[in-house]
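Hi L.,

You mentioned the student needs an example of a multi-chain input paired with its predicted structure. This one should do, with 313 residues in total across all chains.
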Amino acid sequence: VLHATRPLHTTQQCLAPLPPLPEKGGEVRYGLIPEEFFQFLYPKTGVTGPYMLGTGLLLYFLSKEIYVVNHETVAAACILSVIIYGVKKFGSDVAAFADKLNEEKVAKALEVKNEAIKDLETAIEQEKKEQWRVEGRSYLFDAKRNNIAMLLETNYRERLLMVYNEVKKRLDYQVAMQNLKRQKEQDHMIQWVEKNVIQSITPQQQKESIAKCILDLKALSKSAQAAV
Amino acid sequence: GPLSERRLMDVRLGELPAWLATCDFSPQGLLGGVQKAWSSYYDKYINVKRGGPAGISMLLAGYCLLSYGWNYQHISKISFWVSVL
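Structure written out for the whole complex:
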């Protein structure tokens, strides 16, 4: 049996939570005959009408043997009496037990619903926190911009330093080159001058200078002997 | 309201043939009618928070009557005293 006994979402505006089950079922008298039957006969026959009808029908069936009295009647009477005794005695206990089971089911479902509601509420709070954090975005980006500016600055300065070093190296090279050249020229000139001077010393001049040196040495030796 | 949309209890006795004429007697219609009857009975007497013995007892009584009616031919042949003796 399909349990969609209540029409869901048939009207335009549907009430989202289902309407709860009715508390009690339709009224039934003696467990067999609905109240509607008694109400149906009440205007015409009053209160005793249905009972009269019942008695008359029963006697009619019995007398005309439409209802046959045989061993099954006795069996039915015994069974019915046992059933009625059982229901009267244990009915309320069974009802309480069933109610307890139902309660547990409903409590579990409510549990789930409350859990879900709580989770959603925490999610909402976290969402609000995130929204608050979004406001701090500007600070974050300022800090990042500062970082990047600093990186750029350091990079720029490094490169500046490198350029300076390179230029200095090249200039030093030029300076060293000039120094070297001058030194070489000087040395070469000195050598050339010495060579020319030595060449210009003729043998005769050599003899004269040697004689002069010997005279000077003798003079010196004399003065030295005098000093000692 | 119009005749075809009223339930059986709201139809007056004189209009009964007309009401029967508007009924849908195809298999789907009959099945739908049975479904509606069962669902209305179920909602009224069984699908409640605190039902009593009324829900199933009426079904069992109906079943008893139906089976008695089916077996009437067989039951009416033997009388009580013959079966006892």
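You could point out the following to them. The mean pLDDT of chain A is 89. Chain A touches chain B through 27 residues (CB under 8 Å).

Best wishes,
N.
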